């Protein structure tokens, strides 16, 4: 079992349109086939997952830090988002308030000296206007379904990772632990063939990107002839139904972004100079005693952040690119049974075009857009619906709370 460091401080105190290449399968013990798996437009839990992506206000903390540490530290430069009540949102003309007189990019305003999270990117793909409003005004509270999903992910992680608390004294210490956790995760994958919640940081197309891969394992012989690791993402759901295509597309995008990130670090390396500059870190900083002790326990000789960064770079250099096949799992929250496993091929051109589009939004190189008209059903579940002109029911009063079933199942 790998060890994952959790920070504590001295004051103690994260496709193409319905593709023909998708293969959706039910678990071996089930006799369901794809057409028999009910599909719903959206569910409370799925919206929770999307909310979680849209939240995207978390910093680039490893899962261990996000989930387990009561004294968790938000890395320097956390978003300056103001959380206000939904009631307040409804009294504002959100779009105008968010962007009209502010020329600076969302990257500079909300992710200065931070990496963009993969969840930032997938949240933007869901609805740019929604992301814009989340950045400017905050998001609704974490729901019960979101908490349940987070708890399940923590449970899955703890099956393969043992957490230990380590005291940190600086941003350099925090970064050392993040990168050390990644190195430990990769080592676990190399020795055991599997790891979970692997944090990845890389420089993709001139932008620092961070993501936490749910699961990484060797491909089974019958699964793929490609020897690269299979990247897996598990979505938990309140009901044993598949989400609609836009939600599955969002899930495919997430996995392809992970592969893009992984392959970039493996093939193009890790630009150490830009790393220290962008995150304002001192490469020669001597890490705190606790962090150095933890690093030594992991079998690594390092005194400074630069040494850990080199180790991270060298670790990824020896890895293969990720498998072309990706796996999206849907799990029923109630009994943890698998609703479906969706296998699909990476599509480099598609993900790159999505990536460029999204980065343009973050860099303010174009205006943000409402979700496409055919997907405006999303508005019924959006916290900004009452004030958003993109909502088809903007003039009339939308329902105050989402119905449990959004609409009849989509045809498969
Ligand atoms: S109401 Fe609809 S278009 Fe407007 S931000 Fe929400 S999801 Fe996007």
Automatic annotation (TrEMBL):
Keywords: Exonuclease, Hydrolase, Nuclease. Signal peptide: none annotated. Residues 1-13 have a biased composition (Low complexity). Residues 15-29 have a biased composition (Polar residues). Residues 399-412 have a biased composition (Pro residues). GO terms for molecular function: exonuclease activity. It comes from the Eukaryota. The keyword Lipid metabolism does not apply. Residues 1-31, 389-412 are annotated as: Disordered. Belongs to the EXO5 family. This is Exonuclease V, chloroplastic. It comes from Camelina sativa. The lineage of its organism: Eukaryota, Viridiplantae, Streptophyta, Embryophyta, Tracheophyta. The gene is LOC104737830.
């Amino acid at each position: 079992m790998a060890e994952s460091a959790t920070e504590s401080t001295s004051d103690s105190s994260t496709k193409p349109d319905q593709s023909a290449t998708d293969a959706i399968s039910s678990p071996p013990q089930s006799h369901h086939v794809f057409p028999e798996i009910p599909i719903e437009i959206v569910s409370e839990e799925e919206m929770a997952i999307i909310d979680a992506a849209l939240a995207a206000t978390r910093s680039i903390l490893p899962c261990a830090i996000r989930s387990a540490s009561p004294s968790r530290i938000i890395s320097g430069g956390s978003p300056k988002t103001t959380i206000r009540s939904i009631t307040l949102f409804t009294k504002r003309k959100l779009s105008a308030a968010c962007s009209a007189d502010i020329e600076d990019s969302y990257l500079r305003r909300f992710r200065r000296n931070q990496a963009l999270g993969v969840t930032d990117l997938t949240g933007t793909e869901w609805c740019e206007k929604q992301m814009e409003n989340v950045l400017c005004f905050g998001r609704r509270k974490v729901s019960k379904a979101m908490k349940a999903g987070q708890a399940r992910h923590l449970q899955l992680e703890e099956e393969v990772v043992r957490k230990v608390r380590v005291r940190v004294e600086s941003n350099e210490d925090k970064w050392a632990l993040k990168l050390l956790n990644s190195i430990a995760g990769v080592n676990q994958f190399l020795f055991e063939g599997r790891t979970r919640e692997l944090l990845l940081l890389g420089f993709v197309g001139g932008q620092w990107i961070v993501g936490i891969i749910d699961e990484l394992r060797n491909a089974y012989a019958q699964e793929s002839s490609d020897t690269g690791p299979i990247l897996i993402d598990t979505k938990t759901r309140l009901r044993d139904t598949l989400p609609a295509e836009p939600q599955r597309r969002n899930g495919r995008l997430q996995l392809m972004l992970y592969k893009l990130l992984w392959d970039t670090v493996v093939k193009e390396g890790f630009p150490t100079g830009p790393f220290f500059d962008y995150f304002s870190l001192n490469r020669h900083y001597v890490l705190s005693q606790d962090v150095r002790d933890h690093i030594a326990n992991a079998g690594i000789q390092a005194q400074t952040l630069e040494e850990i960064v080199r180790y991270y770079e060298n670790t990824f250099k020896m890895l293969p690119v990720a498998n072309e096949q990706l796996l999206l799992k849907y799990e029923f929250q109630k009994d943890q049974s698998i609703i479906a496993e969706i296998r699909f091929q990476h599509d480099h051109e598609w993900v790159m075009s999505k990536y460029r589009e999204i980065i343009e939004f973050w860099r303010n190189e174009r205006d943000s857009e409402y979700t496409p008209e055919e997907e405006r059903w999303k508005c019924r579940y959006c916290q900004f619906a009452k004030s958003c002109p993109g909502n088809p029911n903007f003039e009339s009063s939308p329902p105050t709370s989402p119905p449990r079933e959004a609409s009849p199942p989509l045809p498969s």
